[in-house]
Structure formats: structure tokens, C-alpha cells
């Protein structure tokens, strides 16, 4: 039977089609199908040697916890769960120009300075370009081994022979090319085959492997989605190019938690760690503006204070709902609750919501801060500058408990806030978080109370 010599592969999810179409049925992305040649099949199976027996063992046994190599960059180590694990593969993804190469060069150089053998393979930039960056970052003296290469076969042969390697950085996996796979570098087949080969080497030779990967919306380059299943950890480096700080977030980690974030600031000397993100996120806050409220949030185990801003404007035509840094669906729900349960009339208004600084908030605990920002904007009364908010809002308008109240309160106190607006203590058995004595606690049971307080303030001011 004649096989088709070409197929169309979705560069987003890897689904294969015999014919081109504009939209991938599997993941729904548009314009992601790219023609690739069908790989030559290996010879008939009959000739292969019979398989060997697989040995099974019990769950108990001598297995030490993975010895981790701390990179020396605390924010990166935190996200990794304590450092790089030997014989593991990590994918670092992110938008173009966000700072992936900078971060990995800094980590590689720091590790090399700690007398670990580190190999850095750049497929994207020449040796000169990487050297220039190293000089700018003040890392030129680090005993790092640098190469510019894209041929996976060559890289594999080198790694096979190299001894005591602690870390190999591949920047980026989209530029790697494996002969025998008949598609261009960056296509799903190439990326998958190259990554498979490199990961296999990492496991057999015992080094930690970092693959840098691009994410683009245009499907011309294979998104690292197909890689996510192959690696042990996936980190995303995100941030708004208009802002100087960057967030490193783990979305998958076989050796640690996935809810930690690392916060960095992009400077001309590279990425600087931000030990106190709250101070950075609140740095440009102006008190006494209606529609702004400070949310005492939690990212992983870390309390982070953020400013939530709301703006209401009379709508011409269909009201707009625009959200940056929060979920649109969640805002729609909260607006409905405020309208139905607290009598706040917002239906004829455009609503704009922004989490200042470019961080994305995923916690329901932000509901109360968003409600406060909206109520403040509606009443045209500023929230008190020394107050933080946290609490989840239910569909009947009740304000519900959230986790880690104490950590949130402590962080608020540390940054000079003197009042916290939080969910009412449960009648039975609910423990109130022990707060620093200087912090005044204002318990709210229902969003209507919050809305009424702003409205009363507005009447008083008039
Ligand atoms: N001379 C400089 N001074 C200050 N910042 C610089 C300088 N050169 C580069 N940068 C910063 O570094 C960023 C680029 O970083 P980097 O090359 O590490 O990104 P990347 O994620 O690896 O990009 P790519 O996807 O293109 O590989 C730029 O967006 C810029 O903010
Ligand atoms: Mg780069």
C-alpha cells in the first residue's frame, strides 16, 4: 500500500492530519498545521532481538532523596523546589526577549563558579554574542564551557564522552536539529526527537538538563506544549515587557511543588532577585485614589501584596469588561453578585480592572479586594491607604474564609499597613488568625456591608 509521503502536524499540540486545514480540530488553534515529511519506519519487527525481562521491585528500598545542586540564584532554586536535580530535564519556556537566555546564563555561570562542570550550548546565538552578554552581566570570568551548535548528533557524542557534568543548558530546543528526521528545526517532529535524545542522555549520564523553549502564538515554531510531557519540570518565565519585573513560575514539577514563584527584576546587569516582591509591586501606588485596593495575596508559600485597580466609565453602547491580571469570568461573577446582593448598579458602565505591575492573580481570595476596588470606584471614595483586603466572595454575597490568613496579615504589617479587611470568623470552631498587635482587623460577613460602608463614606463627604 502506498503511504502518503507528507502529513500535516499541528505545531501547537502535535496532532497529525493527512490534509491541511486552517484550524486544528484537536486543540482548536488556527493556522498551526505545517507540512512535514513522514519519517522512515524502522525495519520489520520480526528481525529484532527478543525483549529482555523487566525486573520489578518493591516500593521500599535504598533511595536517597534527590541530591540537588543549588544554582545559587535563590529565586530560581525556590521554583525548582530546592535546586536542580541530577539526571532530570527542565523546560524553561517564555515569550521572545523575556530574558530566558539571561537567566540561564546567570544560573549556569553561578553554578560553574561553584566548581561544577557546566556546558552551555547555544543554537541561537554565536559564541561572540553569548560572550558579549556574559561581559555585560559581569560573568565573563566564570569557568563555563560554551559552544554554539545545533546538531544533536554532535552534541550527544560530546556529552557521551564528557565526565562529571553537572548541568547542560540547551538554548533553545527549537534550534536543535537531528539528522534522520526530515523536517525543519523547530517543527514538532524535530523538537520532539531532539528533546528525546537529549533527555535520554541526561538520564543515562546523570546531568541536569535545561531546555530553553519559545512560546509563540503564530505556530511557525513548535510550542513547547509537546515537550511538557517529556520533561520533569516546566518553568514559565513571564512578565510584561513594559514592566521591569519577571515572574518565574513552575507549572509542572516532578520533584517539588508547583505553586512557587520566583520574582526577578530586569536590569542592565541582568536579572536581579527580588527578595521582597510586595514592596516592588506597591512601589508606585498612590493613596487617596478611588478604585484602588491592596490585596494581601499568596503565591505559593509566599505572601505578596498587590494593588487592584478598578475604573468605571459610562458606556456608550454595550458595556465593556476589560481585565488585566485576573480572570474575566471571575469578574463577571463578582459584578453579578455586587449587583444582585449588594445593590451596586454597574450595568450601564464600562468596567476596567487591572492588577498593577503585571502579575496574574489566580486566587479566589482576591474577590474581596476586587469588590472593594469596585465599590470604592462606584462611590468615588478612596479605600484607606493603610488597609489590605482578602477573602473569597460566594454567590450569595457572603465573604468566605481563605487559607493562610496569618501569613497575609504578617506581610501587611511588615509593609506598614495598619488595617486588614478580612472574612468574618466562623461562629463555631473558626479560629481567627493571630495578627500582629498593631494591625486592626475589620471582619466583613457580606459584600453588602462593604458596599454600604463606601456609600456611607460618600454621603458623609458630600
Ligand atoms: N544592554 C542591555 N541593557 C539592558 N537590558 C538589556 C540589554 N540587552 C538586553 N537586555 C534585556 O535582555 C532582554 C533579552 O534577554 P534574553 O536574550 O535573555 O531573552 P530571551 O528570552 O533569551 O530571548 P530570545 O527568545 O530572543 O532568545 C531584553 O528584552 C532586554 O530587556
Ligand atoms: Mg535567548
Which stretches are poorly predicted, pLDDT < 50 over at least 5 residues?
none
Helix residue percentage: 25-40%
Secondary-structure content class = alpha/beta
- The tally of beta strands, per DSSP, is 21
* Bound small molecules, deduplicated: adenosine-5'-triphosphate, magnesium ion
Main-sheet strand order equals: 6-5-7-8-4-9-10-11-12
Helix count? Answer: 11
Strand content: 25-35%
Radius of gyration: 26 Å
**Anisotropy-based shape:** elongated
Oligomer: single chain
Calculate the mean pLDDT score and round it.
87
What is the terminal separation in angstroms? 85 Å
Polypeptide structure, described:
The protein contains eleven helices and 21 strands. By secondary structure, the chain is of the alpha/beta class. Helices cover 26% and strands 25% of the residues. A nine-stranded mixed sheet has the order 6-5-7-8-4-9-10-11-12, sandwiched between helices. A seven-stranded mixed sheet has the order 15-16-14-13-17-20-21. Bound molecules: adenosine-5'-triphosphate and magnesium ion. The site of magnesium ion has 4 residues, from helix 2.
Amino acid at each position: 500500500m502506498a503511504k502518503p509521503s507528507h502529513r500535516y502536524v499541528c505545531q501547537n499540540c502535535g496532532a497529525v492530519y493527512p490534509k491541511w486545514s486552517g484550524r486544528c480540530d484537536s486543540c482548536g488553534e488556527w493556522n498551526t498545521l505545517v507540512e512535514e515529511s513522514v519519517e522512515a519506519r524502522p525495519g520489520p519487527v520480526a528481525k529484532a532481538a527478543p525483549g529482555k525481562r523487566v525486573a520489578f521491585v518493591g516500593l521500599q528500598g535504598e533511595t536517597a532523596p534527590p541530591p540537588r545542586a543549588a544554582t545559587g540564584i535563590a529565586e530560581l532554586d525556590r521554583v525548582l523546589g530546592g535546586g536542580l536535580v541530577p539526571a532530570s530535564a527542565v523546560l524553561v519556556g517564555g515569550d521572545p526577549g523575556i530574558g530566558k537566555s539571561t537567566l540561564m546564563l546567570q544560573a549556569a555561570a553561578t553554578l560553574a563558579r561553584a566548581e561544577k562542570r557546566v556546558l552551555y550550548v547555544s543554537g541561537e546565538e554565536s559564541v561572540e554574542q553569548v560572550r558579549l552578554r556574559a561581559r555585560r552581566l559581569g560573568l565573563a570570568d566564570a569557568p563555563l564551557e560554551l559552544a554554539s551548535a545545533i546538531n544533536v548528533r554532535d552534541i550527544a557524542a560530546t556529552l557521551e564522552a564528557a565526565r562529571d557534568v553537572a548541568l547542560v543548558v540547551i538554548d533553545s530546543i527549537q534550534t536543535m536539529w537531528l539528522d534522520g528526521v526530515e523536517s525543519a528545526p523547530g517543527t514538532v517532529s524535530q523538537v520532539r526527537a531532539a528533546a528525546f535524545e537529549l533527555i535520554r542522555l541526561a538520564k543515562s549520564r546523570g546531568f541536569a538538563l535545561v531546555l530553553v523553549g519559545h512560546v509563540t502564538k503564530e505556530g511557525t515554531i513548535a510550542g513547547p506544549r509537546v515537550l511538557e510531557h517529556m520533561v520533569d519540570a516546566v518553568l514559565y518565565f513571564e512578565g510584561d515587557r513594559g514592566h521591569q519585573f519577571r515572574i518565574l513560575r513552575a507549572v509542572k514539577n516532578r520533584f517539588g511543588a508547583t505553586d512557587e514563584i520566583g520574582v526577578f527584576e530586569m536590569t542592565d546587569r541582568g536579572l536581579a532577585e527580588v527578595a521582597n516582591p510586595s514592596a516592588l509591586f506597591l512601589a508606585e501606588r498612590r493613596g487617596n485614589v478611588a478604585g484602588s485596593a491592596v490585596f494581601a495575596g499568596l503565591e505559593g508559600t509566599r505572601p505578596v501584596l498587590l494593588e487592584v485597580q478598578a475604573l468605571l466609565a459610562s458606556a456608550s453602547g454595550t458595556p465593556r469588561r476589560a481585565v488585566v491580571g485576573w480572570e474575566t469570568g471571575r469578574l463577571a461573577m463578582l459584578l453579578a453578585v455586587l449587583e444582585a446582593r449588594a445593590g451596586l448598579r454597574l450595568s450601564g458602565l464600562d468596567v476596567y480592572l487591572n492588577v498593577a505591575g503585571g502579575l496574574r492573580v489566580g486566587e479566589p481570595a482576591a474577590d474581596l479586594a476586587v469588590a472593594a476596588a469596585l465599590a470604592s470606584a462606584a462611590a468615588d471614595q478612596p479605600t484607606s491607604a493603610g488597609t489590605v483586603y482578602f477573602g473569597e466572595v460566594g454567590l450569595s454575597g457572603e465573604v468566605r474564609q481563605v487559607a493562610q490568613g496569618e501569613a497575609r496579615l504578617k506581610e501587611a504589617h511588615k509593609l506598614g499597613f495598619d488595617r486588614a479587611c478580612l472574612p468574618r470568623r466562623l461562629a463555631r470552631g473558626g479560629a481567627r488568625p493571630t495578627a500582629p498587635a498593631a494591625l486592626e482587623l475589620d471582619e466583613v460577613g457580606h459584600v453588602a456591608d462593604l458596599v454600604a460602608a463606601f456609600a456611607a463614606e460618600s454621603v458623609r463627604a458630600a
